[in-house]
Amino acid sequence: MEILEAFDATGCAHSAAGIAKVDPKTVRRYVAARDEGRAVTGPGRRPRIVDPYLAKVEEWVDRSQGKVRADVIHERLQAVGFTGDERTTRRAVAEVKAAWRAGHRRTYRPWITEPGLWLQFDWGAGPVVPGPDGRARSTLLFCAWLAWSRFRVVIPTWDRRLGTLLACLDATLRRLGGVPTYALTDNEKTVTVEHVAGVAVRHPAIVAAGRHYGIQVHTCVPFDPESKGGSEATVRIAKADLVPTEANLLPGYDSFTELAQASEAFCAEVNGRVHRETGRIPVEALVAERARLHPLPMAPFTAALGETRCVNTDQTIRFGSVRYSTPPGLVGAEVWARAEGDELVIVADTDTGLAEVARHRLSTPGNPRIDLGHYPDHPQTPDGGPRPPQPRPSSSAEQAFLALGPGAQSWLVEAAAAGAQRVRSKMTTAVEFAALVGTAPVDAALGIAATAGRFADGDLLAIVEHRAGGAPSADLVVADETHSVQPGTAAWKGFGR
């Protein structure tokens, strides 16, 4: 300011330089920058070799909507006579792209929500878990949230077909305790059949379900997930906390049931803490929002769930003259069965709404599909073999012996299977022996005896003394013919030759 003030007072760069004690060239540069409307302070911009071609670079960037690569522009500039290197071009393209984005940046208006108005839902890729047939299969996460209360619902599924979607919507609405006015989702074929002149044509089943529940389904702009950012954020957060990755160090899931339990725990956690945006706890805000939700129909919408079947007393249903098993607790209940590809999906009306309860591979008559996991108390094990007997004491002596621990129970089962003699007498001896040396050593010795098959009279005492001497328990000697001390005739095989 002193330089410009001195120049305005004298009108001569040489005289102003003497007053401001600077070089006359500095005065001329400041005055020229002011007259041209440029910033006086800061470093001056030197001419660059790419400046004559900037207009063409801006044209190419604008034509490509800011997506053209710098190396492509560099090749085109070389074709029109540009002699600079690629680094100069990249700097110029970066500046032009930054200016283009500043003029074409998308702006957002905060969504002013209203209680009981909007529900958003979307799908996300879930973890890989063992399927009904034991093979690893990919899962999906159905994620929904209420826009005002921020209450979230996450339901794992095997697929995203129409029947699964309707079951998840019913379960979501029953968790919410009411029905909002609108639902916003993506343009999937289960919701939008096609677009005619930019207008979405709804799936007839979705329209019928909307009429049943009293909700109107809307879809976002095609290929524009930002128009439903709330559900996108719900999917992102659910995947970050439920899908095992290197970032969260989560272990894998051993079953689909474990994934469902983890999803319920996730919903309880996020719905029970204060939301950063609203400053409210979603589960408490839901109580206030339920006053604005529509009443939920008592009967679920089942038109797209398949054919109805009644569960027989053997926990099976018949579909296509083939029996398929169902989980416990559904005997006499009505379920829905539908074929999806090469699988049969069984859906039941549970306390939390419609839910998939079983999934089997389609079979032919005479070849039933029975999941032994549906019969937890059956004498057969899941692999088809017999279950080991479960000791149940009927006297005080038996109760005292079994109270020693799991080793005593194993000893009784193995001794009975091996046909050991005087079992009751040996049980009484073990109880008396435990009163002298302690329960833990005797129980451990009984477990070792059961594993090694040693049920003689003095075996228990020998094992306890052997372990008391510091011998490791892992070294078991099983009495069989391979360890026999009976002298053989191998030494006589060459006699007489």
The CATH class of the largest domain: Alpha Beta
Provide the structure class.
alpha+beta
Secondary structure tally: strands: 13
Spatial order of the strands forming the largest sheet? 3-2-1-4-7
C-alpha Rg (nearest Å): 39 Å
CATH structural architecture of the largest domain: 2-Layer Sandwich
- Major sheet summary line: 5 strands, mixed
| Strand coverage percent | 15-25%
Number of helices: 16
- Measured as a percent range, the helix fraction is 25-40%
- Report the oligomer: single chain
The fourth-level CATH homologous superfamily of the largest domain is Ribonuclease H-like superfamily/Ribonuclease H
Unreliable stretches covering 5 or more consecutive residues? none
Q: Any idea of the CATH topology of the largest domain?
A: Nucleotidyltransferase, domain 5
Apparent shape: elongated
What's the end-to-end separation, in Å?
Answer: 125 Å
The H-and-E topology, N to C, reads as: HHHHHHEEEHEEEHEHHHEEEEEEHHHHH
Mean pLDDT: 86
User: What is the number of domains?
Assistant: 4
